[in-house]
Amino acid sequence: MELDIQCEEMSPSRWAELLSTMKSCKTIRLDDCNLSSSNCEDLSSIIKMNPSLTELKLNNNELGDAGIEYLCKGLLMPSCSLQKLWLQNCNLTSASCETLRSVLSAQPSLTELHVGDNKLGTAGVKVLCQGMMNPNCKLQKLQLEYCELTADIVEALNAALQSKPTLKELSLSNNTLGDTAVKQLCRGLVEASCNLELLHLENCGITSESCREISAVLSNKSSLIDLSVGDNKVGDSGLALLCQGLMHPNCKIQKLWLWDCDLTSASCRDLSRLISTKETLTEISLIDNNLRDSGMEMLCQALKDPKSKLQELWIRECGLTTACCKAVSSALSMNKHLKVLHMGENKLGDAGVELMCEGLLHPNCNIQSLWLGNCDLTAACCATLATVMATKQCLTELDLSYNSLEDDGIRKICEALRNPSCNMQQLILYDIFWSSEVDDELRALEESKPEVKIIS
Question: Of 123, 208, 391, 448, whose CB is crowded by the most CB atoms within 10 A?
C-alpha cells in the first residue's frame, strides 16, 4: 500500500485519519505538507509498528533538528526496514547529522539518503561520513546538494568512499568545492572500490583545470553512466579533456549533462565524434551554450551516423536560428533513435519549423517529445505542426509556450487534437494569448479527450 500526498495542509483530524492508514503502508510520501517536529513523533511510532515501511519521503517540511531526533528513535529500532529516506529542505542543521550518523551505523537496510537543501555544512557531513564508514552501513545513494559544503569535505568523503563499495550514486551539486577539491575527489574515486554509477557536480566551481581528473574517472570507472557537470565554467578546452575520458573504450556513459558550461561551436567537433561513436550515450544536455548554427550542423551530422544511439537531445537557448533547421530536418529523417528534442528559446521562426516538420514527418522519425517554446513562432507554422500531430502517432508531448500563435494558430492545433490519429498526451501552451471562445474550445477538448492534458 502506498500513501502519496503533496502540498496539503494537515488539520489535526486529517492527520489522525492518515496515521491509521500509514500503519500498513510500504511507501509514505508527504512532501510540502506543512509538517513539523510534532508530526515526527507520530511518524516515529509508525516506523516502530510498521516493519513493511521501506520508503519515507518528507521533503519541504519544517521538521528541524528536533523532528529528526524524534524520527530517528523509530529508525533505530531493530524492526525498522526503511530503505529510502528523503529529507530535502527540512530546515536541518549539522546538529541532525549526529542522529543520522547513528542510523547509518545501525541500519543496514538503509540504501538511500537524500538530505539536500539543508544547512548541514562541512562539519555536519563529516559526521555523516563517519556513519558511512561503519561496516553496517550499506548506503547506495547519497544526495548532498545545496548543503553549504566547502573544499574541506573531500578528505572525509574520500575516506567514506574507500570503505563503501556499495555506493552507486553521489550528488554534490551546488556546493562551493572548487577545482582543487574536485581533483582530490576524482583521485579518490579512481582509487575507491565502489562502482559509482552517478556523479553530479553541477555548480561546484569547476573550470577546465579539473577536467583531466574527471576524465580519468570516466576512463577508469566503466560503472559510471550518469555524469552532470552543468553550470560550471568548463569551456571548450575543458570539454576536449572530458572527451578523452568519454571516448575511452572503458567509458560506458549513458547520460551527460553539460548545460551552461561556456561551450561554443568549437566544442561541437568533439561532441559530434562522441555522439556518432559512443553507442552507450542516450541523453545529452547542452542547454545555454553558445553553439550557434555551425555547431548544431556538426551535431546533426553526427545524428545521421548509424552508430549514434542518442535518444534525448537538449539544445535549448543555444543561439540557433532558421539556418540550422534544414540540417535538423535531415537528421530527423535519418535517425530512428531520437525520442526527445528540446529546442526552445532559439530563434527558429516559422520557416525553420516548417523545414523541421519535413524531417518529423519522415517514416524514420520516432520523436515522442518536442519542445519549441519561445522560438519566434506564429500561426503561420501551425497548419504544418497540426499535420505532424495528426500524422505522427509516436508524438505524445509538444511544448509551444511563449509563441504568438493567437486564435488562428491555436484553432489549427485544436483541429489536430480532435483527429482520431492524434496520440497527444500533453500539450504545453504557457503565456499564449487567445480569446474566450478559443478557451472554451480548449476546455471542451479536454472534456471530450480526457487522455489529453493541456497545460497553460
Answer: 208
**What's the chain's Rg over C-alpha atoms?**
25
DSSP secondary structure string for all residues of 244-285: HHHTSTT----EEE-TTS--BGGGHHHHHHHHHH-TT--EEE
Rounded to 10 deg, the angle between the 154-163 and 121-132 helix axes is 10
pLDDT one-digit tens code per residue, 155-199 = 999 999 998 889 999 999 999 999 999 999 999 999 888 889 999
Crossing angle of the two packed helices 178-191 and 211-220, in degrees rounded to 10: 20
Q: Counting beta carbons within 10 angstroms of the beta carbon of residue 433, is it exposed (0 to 12), middle (13 to 18) or buried (19 or more)?
A: exposed
Judge whether 359 and 333 are in contact, CB under 8 Å: yes
Report pTM: 0.94
Q: Cα(150)–Cα(147) distance, rounded to whole angstroms?
A: 9
- SS3 (DSSP) at 398: strand
Instruction: Give the three-class secondary structure for 169.
Output: strand
Please state, as a whole number, how many other Cβ atoms lie within 10 Å of the Cβ of residue 280.
Answer: 12
Burial code of 117-155, b = ≥16 C-beta within 10 A, e = fewer?
Answer: bbebbbebbbbbbbbbbbeebbbbbbbbbbbbbebebbe
| Bridge partners (DSSP) listed for residue 256 | 227, 284
